[in-house]
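Working notes for the structural subgroup meeting. M.R. asked for a predicted model of this chain before we commit to crystallization trials. I am recording the input and output together here so anyone reviewing the notebook later can reproduce the run.

Input as submitted:
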Amino acid sequence: MRARSKRQRTGRGVALQAEQADRHALYQRSVQDPEAEVAQLDDLFRRLRGRSPLSLREDFCGTALLATQWCRSDPRRTAIGVDLCRDTLEWGRLHNVEPAGKEIASRIHLVQDNVLDVRTDPVDLVCGFNFSYNGLLDRASLRRWFENAASSLTEEGLLVLDCYGGSEAFDTVEEERDIEGEFTFVWEQASFNPIDHRAECHIHFRFPDGSALERAFSYRWRIWTLPEIRDLLAEAGFSSIHVFWEQFEEGEEEDEYLVSTGRYEEVAEAENQESWICYVAAAR
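Returned structure, recorded in token form:
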């Protein structure tokens, strides 16, 4: 990951918005919705296990925003956050974990380690969100993560990951989204190789004063397909694999064809779309 500030002076002595911006704070506001993610994890676990989960390991946790919200949601809950980047973990400790208060922080354990190798106490849930596992570029690495997750689960534990696909997932694309009029979030898939499904992706942040953080985050990914993910989960020892597909309804506005309901239902078949998101939940 790397950050670069686009310097377009709007006036001598005037600080540009991009120069004052914190890329991690911008990422959290643009990409993450921890309350919804905690609710989704709880809902999936209840559907498949009939009870509320209490312990979570957030792999590829970044700033541990999800882990913090997990412990905030229930005083019985504990979380482990695992990430390779020390600086990102420290940012999360200072801006998410410690501000949550001593009681909540005492139930969060941050670990700088490789998710392929880390050893932790068994948990009800291991999750890998924001499609971060696409950074594992070969079958052996993805299977190794799945095997590690399987060995880290309680008897009734689940591995949950989010997946995306559709025809646009295999093309170059740039998508913009306005964030409360304060800045624009830009997702760019700059390249895609159909031979090996390798992609180069960037996140940019652009501001009303004309300044920008170009390539605030950059990723070299392999876009894993659902059949590959399901096959590797089975090879890694998961005996029960469930796919939960995003549900849509007709929009109320004239220019809205379909809008997300925020619900995900288990499916065995689905209609392909230009872009889709689903959750996969796997049990040993």
